[in-house]
Amino acid sequence: MKEKLTQLELFFKSSSFDRGLRLGVGIIVPFAILYAVGYFEYAPAIVVGVLLNAPSDVPGSATRRVNAILISIVLTMLVTLLVLFAKPIFFILVLVIAAVSFMVSLIAVYGFRASLLSFSGLLSMVLAFAIQKETPLEIFIQVGLMGVGGLWYLAVSLIFQKLAPEKDQNQLLSDTLQALGTYLRLRTQLWAGNDQQEELLRESFFLQNQINDKQETLREILLTQRKRSGLSPYEEKQLLMLRASVNIFELIEAMHINNKVVHSIHAEHRNYLLPFKEVNYILGNHLIHLAELLIQKDKIPNKHVLLNALEKGNKTIASYIAEIGLPAAREGALTLKTIFDYQERLVAEIRVVRRIMANVKNTPGLSLKKKDSAYFLTNQEFGFKVLTQNLSFKSTLFRHAFRFSVALLFAYLLGYFLDIQNTYWILLTIVVIMRPSYGLTKTRSTDRIIGTLIGALFAIGVVVLTQNTIVYAVLAFVSLILAFSLIQRNYKFAAALITISIVFVYSLINPNAFEVIQYRVIDTVLGAIIAVVANYTIFPSWEADNFKQVLLNAFKTNNGYLLAMQKFYTDTATHKLAYNVARKEAFLAIGNLNASFQRLTQDPKSKQKNFQLLYEMVTLNQAILSAIAGIGNFVVNHKTTPASSELQRLFHRISSTLGIAYEILEQGSASKNVPTEALMDAEEKLLDKYVQLSNRRDEEISLGKTTMDTDTLHGLQEAYLISNHIIWLKSLSENLQKTTEHYVKTTVQE
After folding, report:
1. What is the model's pLDDT at position 191?
2. Which of 336, 432, 684, 693 lies 20 to 30 A from 287 at CA?
């Protein structure tokens, strides 16, 4: 019960609910003022303007948010104007539906924010069917009032932003910490190597992409502001928390050490891994708790739970050595020590977050120069070239725009010739649920139908129990606010609330509420069926066909990350910025790859071409990222010896292999082969360094020097971790090349 109350508190304090309140204020104030002054008939048009332009109000830099809402206002006014003037002439209206739905859908080629503008434009087209205006003057007044509504909503949004400027950033940081904590616990479960491995991996793919998305939005908000006019002290703290979250993300990835090596060393002593798993769970839970406290503004819990967990892990290493004895225990102890070091760094980064949240004065400052901020921003191109590049059936978004316009036309003509009441409800369903991906459209269709049925049943219950119009009005208003708050979190529940809101709004106009509910359910089911069938039959976009480009980008950025890490290993001071930028690009590319794979799993089984090979390439790319992060993180936190010629040769071989895999995937064959020179000698020499240090340490022990100094320990760790990780990377890159060759051959044969 306590946990449910906590979740309820977090929801009401969230930025999602805050946006719902903005919508509520945007709706209720015009109604109240215009009713009071005797011009209530103008209120609906202003409210429509509020509803149409609210979707563009999403987290991001202030400039982009304002520009998006202003563009949305202009777009929705133009579309409404076109539809209202075309309505009296059937053939012209059909042409307008086809042209507007196609062109407005194509706006989505400019990215996520543009897709929300597209949604507002399409929504305005559908709602125009519900607007009954006859004369040009009435039409211009309607459209003008909608523009006023959009500007009014912009004003409300800016006021809310002024009153709580940190709300969106805090929510994004909270969501990021929440996802990181869950991700850490989930990645720890993967150590077990159980039958749920594949399911856990897929869940980790989703979380990884979610973390990337949150961090990218935070970069846009904070770094854009810092680049233009500098940050306030509070925003500086948020940027520090973002940096800590990026480091935590890398540490979690780096902790994905070669599980085969871990379990082979601890084959008979796996119980020594349990304390380290427990530490990860404690750290994960602590991150989740901090995420909640960031919204609740409550007191930070005592740090001793973290330190005690670490101490338990440290004692486990000593117990392991005592039971097995040296030198037999050395490799296992070094493996455990590596895990412990990652966890120690995790605790250090978590403590940074804690100090920022507690406003501790001696929190480390920013090391990123203001002029370097631009390197971490992902710029979206808005030129005409982007649009022309997508004017082809090769483009996923072009095919979506085409099938979307066909689906809308079919639905309108169906309603027109069958004289279906409120045909625009069918169109509205298509606009809301139809997406470029078949799997997502199908999922949203199911959620929409279930949500509509739940909402309809609730509405029936209220109608049976009461015939009070005041109750209808209150429920319509409250359910709309809650629906807007939940639409990104729980679409099924949001659909139920939207249905409740629409039913009661119409019930205020039409006394026969049961008739309204009946038509609402039927039209929603019809719209969902049309959307799913259109996605399946009209120039369908199967994720397997689009997967190649996402894979190529992952290959490329992983190779770039590897080369940046190689330079960073050689000179940490000179190449730190380049390493951090390459890390960011690689993490984003893997996140996009994982998101694409998630969409692939939602497609029909018959359309998941070479699913197992694609899955192998995804997991190999994920492992390569983790292995590179493991070496890079060690270099960041330890003073390393100069890279040997053997290490450089292996770096070069791995990079060449990744490059060849890229060529094979892109062109079907490689212009060059993997170098034929054997690298066994390089691997042996690399491992030999560890053997030499181990033998020297054995001699010290035989002479009675049981305590090991820090330099010797770090030297052993470096020799062991680097040699194992680089050999692991070489194996992973070779497996990736082989899998890619197999995939290309299989695809050609099909």
Report:
1. 73
2. 336
